[in-house]
Structures are given as C-alpha cells and as structure tokens.
Design brief:
The complex is a heterodimer. Chain A is 49% helix and 12% strand. Chain A has helices at 3-11, 18-28, 35-47, 60-71, 93-100, 121-133, 145-149, 153-167, 178-181, 184-196, 215-232, 247-260, 278-291; strands spanning 49-52, 85-88, 106-111, 138-142, 171-175, 201-203, 237-241, 271-275. Chain A has an 8-stranded parallel β-barrel with strand order 1-2-3-4-5-6-7-8, surrounded by 7 helices. Chain A starts with a helix and ends in a 12-residue tail after the last helix. Chain B is of the alpha/beta class. Chain B is 39% helix and 16% strand. Chain B has a 7-stranded mixed β-sheet with strand order 13-14-15-12-11-16-17, sandwiched between helices. A 6-stranded mixed β-sheet of chain B has the order 8-7-6-9-10-18, with helices on both faces. Chain B has a 3-stranded mixed β-sheet with strand order 1-5-4, covered by helices on one side. The radius of gyration of chain B is 22 Å and the shape is globular. Classes of the chains: A alpha/beta, B alpha/beta. Chains A and B meet through helix 2, helix 3, helix 11 and helix 12 of A and helix 10 of B.
Chain lengths: 303, 485
Amino acid sequence: MTESGLRTELKKLSGVDAVGAEARVAKLSTRSLKKETKRSAINLAISMVDLTTLEGADTAGRVSSLCSKALRPDANDLTAPSVAAVCVYPDMVATARGVIGTSSVQVASVATAFPSGRASLAVKLLDTTEAVEAGADEIDMVIDRGAFLSGNLFKVYEEIVAVKEACGRAHLKVILETGELVTYDNVRRASWLAMLGGADFIKTSTGKVGVNATLPVALVMLEAVRDFAEEYGEVVGVKVAGGIRTTKDALKYLVVVNETVGATWLTSDYFRFGASSLLNDLLLQRSKQQTGNYARPDRFSGD
Amino acid sequence: MESLHSQLGGLQYDAAPESAAVANIQKEYGLFINGRFTSPADHKTFSTINPATEETLSMIALADTKDVDSAVQSAKRAYEKVWSKTTGVQRAKYLYRIARLIQERSREFAVTETLDNGKPIRETRDIDVPLAAAHFFYYAGWADKLSHAGFGQDPQPLGVAGQIIPWNFPLLMAAWKLAPALAAGNTCVLKPAETTPLTALLLAEILQQAELPEGVVNIITGDGTTGAALVEHPDVNKIAFTGSTGVGRMIQQRIAGSGKHLTLELGGKGANIVFEDAPIDEVVEGIIDGIFFNQGHVCCAGSRLLVQESIAEDVLRRLMRRVEQLRVGDPMDKNTDVGAINSAEQLARITELTAAGEGEGATRLTSTCVLPSTGFWFAPTVFTNVSQSHRIAREEIFGPVLSILTFRTPEEAVQKANNTNYGLACGVWSEKGSRTLWVAERLRAGVIWANTYNKFDPTSPFGGVRESGFGREGGRQGLEAYLNV
C-alpha cells in the first residue's frame, strides 16, 4: 500500500464520540451473568489468558514455573482449562519453549524494543527474528507512538509490514499502547493501520504505562475488527492487556465482545487477556461456582 | 461476512431475575388525602395489572367528584394554614428527606415500577428512580433561593396545583411535578395514570415517612373522570398536565377563562438527524436509545430518523444488526433491553399504526425476537421507504417503531424535521460543531440533543413548542410553572 493509499483508507474512518462510547460500555457493564453463563464465561476467560511475566528480574526459574502454571492452572483440579499462551521477553523464549513443548499453549514473545519501541528498524527486526527462531509462536510488537503522534503514519505502517514479514509463520500482535495515543479517534485509526499492515491481533497496551486496557478502548478496537472483517473478509483478534485483575472485570470484557462482535471472537483464537494476577482470581471464582464456597487464596499456586 | 455477524450472542445469558418480593405491594390502596390513606366515598375500585403477565397486582380506589373535592380542600387548607407559612429552608428540609428516602427504598421503587409499568428493571433501577431522587435533591436546593431565581425579589406560589401525570414514567413524572411545586411553596393534588398508580402510592408512604405536613400533597387515583373533576375544580389554581395532545387540548378548552395557570407537556414526533460525518457507532446507539428506550413510550422519542442519503444504507445495516441484538422479554430480568407494552389499548394503537405504515407502502423490518405468550408485547420495528405524508411519519405511535426518512442537504433536513405539528425534541448527529449549531438554531423544538438522545437531568429544562405543549420542567425555568410571575 502506498502512503496516499494508506491516508485514503484512514480518512474513511468515522470519528468516535467519547461520551457515547463510554456510555455504551457502562450500559453493557450492567449485564448480569448467572449460573451456567457465568461458569462457561469463567472457563472461556481462563482459556483466553496470555499468562505474562515481563520483568527485568525474570529468570529461567521464574519463567519455567509460569509455564507449568500455564499448562495446568489449577493443580488441584485438572478440569480447569489451560491458558492460551505464556508471554515473555525474547531471551526467555527458549526456556519457555522447553517447558511448554508441543502442547496447545502458545509461546508469545514481546519484541521490537518492547515496551518503548525506541530503536532502529534493524534492531526491531533482529529482536523479532531471534524470538521466532528461539521458538515463539506469537510476537507482540509495539508501534512507534512517536511517529504516530507526529503524523508519520506511513512509517508506523511500514514497520508493521516489515515485522510481519520477519515473523514468518508466527502470529503478529500489534500493541497500540492506547494509553499513549489517548483519544478514541487515534485508537480507531491505529487499529486500522495495524490491520492494514498485516496484524493477526491488535493489542491495547504494554502494561508499562499509566493507562492500560479500558472497556471503551476495547469497544473501539472491537468495532474496528468487526468493520475490517466486513470490508476485507479477514478476522483479526483483539488482546486487552494491563490492569485486568478480577473475574468481574474479565466478564465485563467478554460481554462487550459478545455484544459487539459476537461468537466468532469468543475464542482464544481471536480474543486474549494479557494478565498475570487475573488467572488466580478466575480460578478462585471457578472453584466458588463449583463448590459454593470460596477457597483460601493459597490453594492456588502463586506463579 | 454477513453470516459472521448473525452469530451474535455466543454467550447465552441465563435468566437473571430481580426478586418481585422486594416490592411489598398491598392488596388494595385507598386515596391519599390529608396525609392518610382513605376509602373513596363511593367505594369504587379498579384493578392495576402487570402488563408483562396480565396478572392483577392490586385493587385501587377510584376517586369521584366528592373525593377530588376533599383532596383539593385538604390541599387548600394545607396551603393556607401551613405550607404558605413554611420557610424555604423548612420546605427544603422536607424535599431533601423525600429524596433520601427514595434513594433508601430505590430497589422497592424500581421493582414496583417495573411490575406495574412493564419497563425493564435495568431502566427503573438505573434511570427512573435515580432521576426521581435527583429531581427532589435539585429543587430542594432552590426552595430557599427563589428570590435569586430571576423571577423578582419575592416570587409567590400559585396555591393549589392539580397535577395529572402519564403512565410512561410514573414515578419520575410525579417527581417532575411535585418537586418544583413544593419548592416554590404550592400544595398539590396529584393524579397518577390509571394503569400505573403504584409508585405514586409508594411515594405517598414516603411522604408520611418524611413527615411532610398533612394535606401538602394529596394523591388521588382514578380514570379520566377523576382527572376531569380535578381540572374543573374551582379551588385549583394551577393545572400541570403531561400526556396526549388530545387531552391537553381538552384541558385548555375547559379551563379557558377560569384564571387557572396551565402548563402542558404533550406528544411529539422527534427527529433524530444524522449527517454523513457523524460518529457512526455512537449514532447507532443513539438511534436505539432514541426509539427503543422505554419501549418507545417516550413523548420525546426519536421516532423519525432523518439520515443523510450518502450513508443511509450503512446506517440501516448497522442499525438492523443492533436491533436484532435487543433483548426483548421479562422486564424483571436484569438483562432485558425492551420490556412489555403498558396496556392492551396502547398495543392496539401501535398495531393499528404499523399496519397503516405497511398499507401506505413503507417497508417494514421487524426484529425476529421471540415474544412471550402472555402479556402485551411488540417486537422492535423499523420502517424504511417512509415519506413525509405517511401516517407513521406524522402521528405519534408511542411504541418501539422507528420511521426512517432520508435527506440530501442540511436545509432539507431542517425542513423535514420541522414538518410536523409537534415540537418537543430533536437530535443532531455530526462531528462538525458549526453544522450542529446551524441546524439546532433552525429546529422548532423545545429540546435539542447533539450527538446523544434521551438524556435527562434535573438542571436542564424540558418542554415543547407548538402541539407539544408549553411550560418547562426542570432547571431554574421549571420554577416558573409554579410561581406567580
């Protein structure tokens, strides 16, 4: 796509009325999930978790235990589904791959000078290639927010295209870092930019800035993937990341998915939660649904 | 890709019913006169039913001329002996108490309203009841500040206000009427609608709980004859009516020359005007809120959608996808979006007008939702290919029925929006502020919303022009209806 072609595509997009978008999710947040709906929604949410550790202090030991948890989230209840993926830094991919092996859990790696993205394209591509070669199934790249905010949308687009190519068979998640894009209009534009560039998933946040995933931002991104699928016939996934800690929050997101884009996206193939502490709350609520009582938090492993 | 989106609702929501037991509805209710529930003189009663199930909820006293007279005399006595001598600060105290008590018993109010009216519990819980409390809070603040309201140094109340309210927002309309009247120093005789008396009677209990002096508010239940007796009573100084244009016209004729003050809030045929640069996803929500909120039983409903031709197809496709998603059914279920039609009579009128729409050549698109077998129901319906001369574009349907018309230029949009006998509310959707203002200046309607619809707030005046009535409710302007200015 040429620079003017990209501009034309993005100009077609309608604006987002912030008050209306926020009112819509507030209304959806009043949905009441009971009984079987709640049980299946909790299981679904568990299966959508990208269990994440992205710390400077990460070690092989820490990553290994996280991977074990991903495979078998509830050590006392093997009927609990495994999560969608583990998400680690590129240098931890090989360790993760070793534990995950050939199971259905995916190994995701952040790349492209995560979280700031402030590096040359060559460095970003090398970062990506190394992660893929170490065995990553999925790459979570960050966009160049500086370029986006200064209006250099084509630079952002070209980087996405280049990283997508470097990914090879690995799936590409494009992190918009919506907390730095600030406006919903920007979120919508960045979503389309990423999808036109070849994103398999668009993702809200790195989890490293003040404002991470929010329900209205998720709504705007879901509207984008819905409209993109209608126009191009390609289904792109959405990953919300950062700040989602409770089952209650996760279920609100699932309701927004359910009533904005519907069943197609209600699978870990097209919707993910990037989170760490969320998983134990989901397990706690899951066991509450089964036994009628809350278990001690210590019943679940702290990884 | 169409099939992809018809799969909406991958998560099937299990029933999430609110408990009806919270309501504590009594088997029968008397008239609330002079601070007490009393039997009507003739011991006549009528039943109020749950429109979602057609089950009788309670037997209600039917006030005749004698009962209306005792209510008005009670209000007159209370005005002369007590309320006109009560200071603004004291009146505010009672209004604040009422507001707080409504909040404390909000769940009870929400459930009672939903059972009696048929509207979804989500709306009574999140809109009707909180707004009713907010109205009392707001006017409590004005009670001791009337000399700063812009109506002169010491504006005086009118005396006894006769207030007749409709069935679409029973508690909220009672609050809209009572709060400013009491703040301004009037006493009241309130007549709730025949099909929805219960929350007004629950409000009577709250007035007792708040220790409002006897006779300051009297609540008389009944039918059209009760309302007529109230309108014609010589000791009533003011009539405030919300309801149909036909009845409003009759009231105005009856009291002509009597010196009674009058405010009327009547019907409407609101235009929701969508320009091609509007925020499309929020537009769809705005259209939905505009016409399917409260089953379309809203005088200011956006029942005519005027959409710019260049985006009409896209808007219709998105709108119908959304209409299919509306959850129609048990009003007590917390996930219900559209509840029951309030009465068999109203259902018949909606059915008649939609049949006329088809007969006149408009294209009917109806939600495929499954309707319950008992009760009064009407599936959300959209008409396309509607022209200005069709009855469904001119008459108020007061149901979940939208008529879509198109326009090419802002001038044409304004011309079509104004081409109605009514003038209550309009919506304008555009991302261009200058255009919104240009259009808003030219619309003949009391309320104009920009990039939203059906938003209410006690600080904002509400009311119509032309056949939608006169006088304002809400805001500083709402005090004028109850002051001698």
